[in-house]
Structures are given as structure tokens and as C-alpha cells.
Backbone:
């Protein structure tokens, strides 16, 4: 029997910088969608961006919350005290709180909250200083996406965790980085390759999808991705680049339902003729005379 699917609703910055929307995202994910975890993001824009990047206009001004890209990112940020409140709301709703960390300062701040797991986004998976610090200073599980990552980079990342004795706390995700991703660019068989190369070396394999719909996630789980992560919003028409590539609550709820149903189907027959079949066999099976 396959392990139960672990579903993460990635809220990211889809709260649009508003704590009340973040609280609604948490409560809806927990009580309506019934996912295992919800994940936000933490950035320190002045550490993450060069001065030129910080002061440049947003590449898609219609989605910007500030005059510059830096101001846009600052507007969407919650400080560590606000993240502590998010974690408290998650605990009250009996859902796991987590956050993606994009820089060392953010990693240190989130570690101080002792979440069950921390996520490393594809964009930061070669930030080896941050990875090393987390291996040495964070006791929880570390999840990491392999989007826009070469095979050599993948191997270097896993070896870093192995050398620090933390590979069994590492979950690696198949991911194609795009918003949204066309079906022919999802490349689900990378899950099979990752299982062949890393399954015995890391804790588990996951799938982080940026596609449309929920059929792909069922296939990913069937291929062996125990952890399924999807971008999540309350309204796909809201302002921001991630909303259009996200699932609304009803989509996340259906995804959880379908994955739980699929888990029950993934087994071999316990008998050559199952009891349910024996009844039909007695009525319908052809018998030679």
C-alpha cells in the first residue's frame, strides 16, 4: 500500500500583504480543503536583491504593489512576529505551518519559530551557505524543489545534506519552474528518475506543480511522489502573478479527495478472486458443459 499523500497548499504571497486574508487562507485550507499543511514565503528583499533590481520597476506593472520591484516585495512581506501569528492560527486550525525561505536572514528568522518543516524554493537551492546553516542549526525537515536545476547541481545538493548527516531529513521535489506550466513541460517521468537516483538517500520524493487542473498530481502520486504541493489562492482573478497558476479552495479540496481515493486503489489483489468478484463469478462466469 502506498503511503498516504501529504498535500501542501502553497499560499506564498497570495495574501496580498494582508493578515486577515492570510488567516482566511489558513482556515479555509484546514477546514474546507483539508490539506496537511499550508506554506507561506519569507524574503528579506534588501538582502535578496541587488540595488539595481530593488530600484527597477516591476516587470509586470499591473501586478505591482509598489513603485519599484523592491517596494513591491516589501509590501508583500510579513515580519517574523506576523509569521509567529500565522503559525499560531495554523495550530488553532490543526494544520501544519511552513514557509519557504529565500535568504539567510529569512532562514534564521523562521528557524526561531521552530516549524515542522522549511521549504527551499528552486530559485535558492544552490544558496549553499543557507543550506549549510540550516543543516547545522535547524532540527526540522527540509523540503527542496529541483526546478531549473542541473543534474550536477542536484547531486551537489544531496551530497551536502549527506555530508552533514541530514539527508534523511530531506525531501526533494520534481518541479518545472513556470507560471503556469504547459502539460508537455511538466515532465512527470523525472519523478521516476529521481526515485532511481535518490530514493534510498533522502527521506522522500515530492512533486511541486505549477500546471492547470488536478489530474497531473494524481499521476505524480502514482509514480511515487508522496508529497504534493500546489499554489493556492482564494480567488484566481486577484492581483498578483501567482494567482492565475493557483488552485482555488474547491480545486484543492477535490485534489485531496482524489489523492485519498487513489491511495486506496494502489494495491495488488489479495486473492485471485476477490469476494466481490466471487458473487459475480457465480452468476456470470462462462462454464463449459
Residues:
Amino acid at each position: 500500500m502506498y503511503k498516504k499523500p501529504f498535500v501542501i497548499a502553497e499560499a506564498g504571497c497570495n495574501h496580498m500583504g494582508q493578515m486577515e486574508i492570510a488567516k482566511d487562507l489558513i482556515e479555509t485550507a484546514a477546514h474546507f480543503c483539508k490539506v496537511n499543511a499550508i506554506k507561506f514565503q519569507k524574503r528579506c528583499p534588501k538582502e535578496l536583491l541587488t540595488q539595481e533590481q530593488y530600484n527597477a520597476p516591476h516587470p509586470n506593472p499591473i501586478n505591482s504593489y509598489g513603485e519599484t520591484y523592491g517596494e513591491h516585495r516589501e509590501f508583500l512581506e510579513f515580519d517574523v512576529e506576523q509569521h509567529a501569528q500565522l503559525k499560531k492560527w495554523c495550530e488553532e486550525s490543526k494544520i501544519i505551518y511552513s514557509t519557504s525561505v529565500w535568504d539567510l536572514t529569512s532562514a534564521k528568522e523562521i528557524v526561531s519559530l521552530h516549524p515542522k518543516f522549511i521549504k527551499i524554493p528552486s530559485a535558492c537551492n544552490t544558496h549553499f551557505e543557507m543550506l549549510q546553516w540550516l543543516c547545522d542549526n535547524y532540527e526540522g525537515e527540509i523540503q527542496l524543489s529541483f526546478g531549473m536545476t542541473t543534474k550536477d547541481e542536484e547531486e551537489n545538493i544531496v551530497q551536502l545534506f549527506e555530508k552533514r548527516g541530514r539527508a534523511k531529513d530531506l525531501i526533494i521535489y520534481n518541479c518545472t519552474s513556470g507560471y503556469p506550466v504547459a502539460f508537455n513541460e511538466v515532465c512527470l517521468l523525472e519523478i521516476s528518475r529521481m526515485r532511481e537516483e535518490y530514493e534510498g538517500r533522502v527521506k522522500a520524493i515530492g512533486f511541486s506543480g505549477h500546471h492547470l487542473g488536478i489530474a497531473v498530481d494524481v499521476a505524480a502520486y502514482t509514480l511515487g511522489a508522496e508529497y504534493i504541493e500546489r499554489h493556492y489562492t482564494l480567488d484566481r482573478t486577484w492581483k498578483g502573478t501567482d494567482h492565475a497558476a493557483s488552485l482555488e479552495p474547491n480545486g484543492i479540496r477535490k485534489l485531496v479527495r482524489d489523492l485519498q481515493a487513489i491511495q486506496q486503489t494502489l494495491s495488488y489483489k489479495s486473492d485471485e478472486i476477490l469476494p466481490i468478484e466471487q458473487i459475480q463469478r457465480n452468476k456470470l462466469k462462462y462454464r463449459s458443459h
Summary: The chain has a mean pLDDT of 95. The radius of gyration is 21 Å. The CA atoms of residues 141 and 267 lie 29 Å apart. The first strand starts at residue 6 and ends at 12.
